[in-house]
Design brief:
The complex is a heterodimer of chains A (365) and B (308).
Chain A lengths: L3 E10 L2 E11 L4 E5 L6 H9 L6 E6 L2 E2 L10 E4 L11 H11 L4 H15 L14 H13 L5 E5 L7 H18 L2 E6 L2 H7 L2 E6 L2 E6 L1 H6 L4 H6 L6 E10 L2 E5 L5 E3 L5 H4 L6 E6 L4 E2 L9 E7 L2 E4 L4 E7 L2 E7 L10 E7 L4 E3 L8
Parallel strand pairs in A: 3-8, 3-9, 6-7, 7-8
Antiparallel strand pairs in A: 1-2, 1-4, 4-5, 9-10, 11-12, 11-14, 12-13, 14-21, 15-20, 16-20, 17-18, 18-19
Helix pairs in contact in A: 2-3, 2-4, 3-4
Chain B lengths: L1 H5 L7 H11 L1 H31 L12 H7 L2 H33 L3 H16 L2 H12 L5 H8 L11 H29 L3 H10 L3 H29 L3 H6 L11 H11 L3 H29 L4
The chains are: A alpha+beta (365), B mainly alpha (308).
Chain lengths: 365, 308
């Protein structure tokens, strides 16, 4: 096992710069998820680590060794592909043992590792089958088995769950997490699904436009996004962004929403926002912080009235949508709160979790 | 058809109702719908084949039934066995070289950037597109021993004149060469299609698994192309075995019958020597050989099925 370091990593295709100077340290045993919209450079970054893509500029080190010019087969990595890339003419056993056979491991070693991996993944009864006789989930397991038997330094996953149906995806997500807890192999995992990123990662790296927007623990990214992009990308339903003006009155700050309510900024944030007083900003509030009254009383939990446009009962909660300052705002209320479309309702905004965003720079203040 | 049968009058007797049931069965309907085509194929394939068998049992004047006498006569003739031998050598050598050259060229074209690939593909297909009777004429001139380009070049380099079509060894080489030139593009285009159907990620997975160039070729490319290779070789073997025009135009079977293949020999005996029954017997001899090859190759293809 090993750590992975990316230093000023750049990938350029003719005119397009897909990856624009990335620095990232992935510790030994760490599970890092690269997440971002399509075209953000996450897969290119992974493929550069794998050696399937040439590096335009910068360095990649695996276990301290620069691997820029080392071919994939000598990097001691294992990779799981989006469409599994199982060899269709080989049985499951042959698929899993292919790498070991090429490296001329002893027969007993190969048999031992294959049966060990088959046990871990619960695919012992599939070993003699061909890939076409397997379901999507089973193929996914075999693809992981092929990675496991190698005892590689680093596991690379390229959107491994995106070809599975929703239910199986959740199940395999748990399997991957269990696998990592058991093997502790350094893992780089690419996905465009922020839920996958949040649930799997020790550390999430949000990428956009070939750059890293923010890297941190899932909870850190969720609670303290540094940019509007991260704030909007992490969390589902997404954070609300409401145009507002930050007003100063008698030493306190207020967030005034044009044509809507005004909210007091909590006292402990006054110093942080004071310099931006008088500016037009975006108020960022997650749906769970726009809810029905009746929780803990707190001066920063402030009520307002609105007319609901749409309600979406989810079972454990109901999502409510209403217009505010020209945007649609989403809130989460208790199913018993009686939320109905076209009904007037009192909601509260929990300003302790507010974010203020400078629209021009896209930075969270 | 089914609804007609279903609404037949109720007074039908027992045997008629079981007939009605048979008519309603999906397989029966499918068979009836395919029947016109089956009849057409029967008329176009079975009739000529049957007629050829019938012809081969007649005497030279086609008036008397002689049983297997034509075959017995052939089996006793050295020339016939030489034709069997020459046809086999001709077909096997030509197919092997066509397959090899097609394989290599397909890989070269596959690795050309997509932009220029169409142009190359088109140009490389030209030999296959020109009617061989015509392109073989050009080869005939190229092979001319006194005035041809080949000998001119060889003489220019200080070599001796080569009797391309005048000496058994060289003549056999020449007909095979032209056949390879004509048939290799077909292999190229089939193999290119097969290559393009191999997902790129298989190669990437193999690369990460530690496979070098040769191992990727051996463990990924070849197994993935096996069915196409088998079918292409079978098809080409049949066509090459039955080749007529190239040998006919280039050597007409000469010198002294040494380059004859089944089709040209059958033509010579049947048309030129006016012994149609004997010619039919020669051409029928191809059938068991090709059937055997087809059974072996197709059995292998069936066994593996579609592995995609």
């Amino acid at each position: 096992m090993a750590d992975v370091q990316l230093r000023k990593l750049v990938k350029r295709y003719d005119e397009v710069e897909a990856v624009r100077g990335i620095d990232l340290d992935i510790a030994d045993h760490e599970f890092v998820v690269l997440v971002g919209p399509s075209g953000c450079g996450k897969t290119t970054t992974l493929r550069m680590i794998a050696g399937l893509e040439e590096i335009t500029d910068g360095d990649i080190r695996i276990a301290g060794e620069v691997v820029n010019d080392i071919p994939p087969k000598d990097r001691d990595i294992a990779m799981v592909f989006q469409n599994y890339a199982l060899y269709p003419h080989m049985t499951v056993t042959e698929n899993m043992s292919f790498g070991l056979r090429l490296k001329r491991f002893a027969q007993e070693v190969i048999a031992g590792r294959v049966s060990e991996a088959a046990q871990i993944l619960d695919i012992r009864e599939l070993l003699e089958r061909k890939p076409r006789q397997l379901s999507g989930g089973q193929r996914q397991r075999v693809a992981m088995g092929r990675a496991i038997v190698r005892h590689a330094k680093v596991f690379l996953f390229d959107e491994p769950l995106s070809n599975l149906d929703a239910k199986l995806r959740v199940q395999m997500r748990t399997e991957i997490k269990k696998l990592h807890l058991r093997l502790r192999t350094t893992t780089v995992y690419v996905t465009h699904d922020q839920v996958e990123a949040m649930t799997l990662a020790d550390r999430v790296v949000v990428m956009n436009n070939g750059r890293i927007e923010q890297a941190g623990a899932p909870t850190e990214l969720y609670a303290s996004p540094r940019t509007r992009f991260v704030a909007g990308f992490i969390g589902s339903p997404a954070m609300n962004f409401i145009p507002c003006v930050l007003e100063q009155a008698a030493g306190a700050l207020r967030v005034a929403i044009p044509g809507g309510p005004s909210f007091d900024v909590p006292g402990d944030r006054t110093a942080r926002y004071a310099a931006s007083a008088g500016r037009k900003l975006l108020l960022g509030l997650r749906p769970e912080h726009v809810t029905e009254p009746g929780g803990a009383e707190h001066p920063s939990v402030q009520a307002f009235e609105t007319v609901l446009e749409v309600t979406e009962p989810m079972g454990m909660e109901t999502l409510v949508y209403f217009p505010m300052a020209g945007t649609q705002v989403c809130g989460r209320v208790d199913p018993g709160a009686g939320a109905m479309p076209n009904k007037r309702m009192t909601l509260v905004a929990d300003m302790r979790h507010m974010h203020l965003i400078d629209e021009e720079s896209g930075l969270v203040l | 058809m089914a609804s007609n049968a279903a609404t037949a009058p109720d007074g039908a007797t027992r045997p008629r109702s079981s007939l009605r049931k048979a008519a309603q069965r999906r397989s029966t309907i499918a068979f009836l719908m395919a029947l016109p085509l089956i009849l057409l194929i029967a008329a176009l394939v079975v009739y000529p084949a049957g007629y050829a068998i019938h012809l081969s049992t007649l005497n030279k004047s086609m008036e008397e039934f002689v049983g297997f006498e034509n075959f017995e006569y052939l089996f006793e003739r050295e020339t016939f066995w030489m034709v069997v031998w020459q046809s086999s050598i001709f077909a096997i050598t030509a197919v092997v070289f066509k397959a090899l050259i097609g394989f290599v060229v397909a890989h070269l074209v596959h690795n050309i950037p997509l932009k220029g690939q169409r142009k190359w593909r088109g140009m490389l297909l030209v030999p296959w597109v020109i009617p061989p009777a015509m392109s073989t004429l050009a080869w005939l001139w190229l092979f001319d021993s006194s005035y041809s380009a080949f000998n001119w070049i060889i003489e220019g380099l200080g070599g001796p004149r080569v009797p391309w079509l005048g000496e058994t060894g060289w003549a056999r080489f020449s007909v095979i060469l032209v056949n390879v030139w004509y048939g290799a593009p077909f292999f190229m285009i089939m193999y290119l299609a097969a290559l393009k159907s191999v997902p790129e990620q298989l190669y990437e997975a193999a690369e990460i698994d530690g496979a070098g160039w040769w191992q990727r070729m051996w463990f990924i490319t070849l197994p993935m192309m096996r069915n196409i290779i088998a079918i292409t070789v079978l098809f080409s073997t049949i066509v090459t075995f039955a080749n007529f025009d190239i040998v006919r135009v280039l050597t007409a079977g000469g010198p002294i019958d040494t380059t004859h293949v089944f089709a040209t020999y059958a033509f010579k005996l049947g048309i030129e020597s006016s012994d149609i029954p004997l010619g039919a017997a020669v051409s029928l001899f191809m059938f068991p050989l090709l059937a055997l090859a087809a059974i072996f190759i197709l059995r292998d293809v069936n066994k593996r099925g579609n592995q995609g």
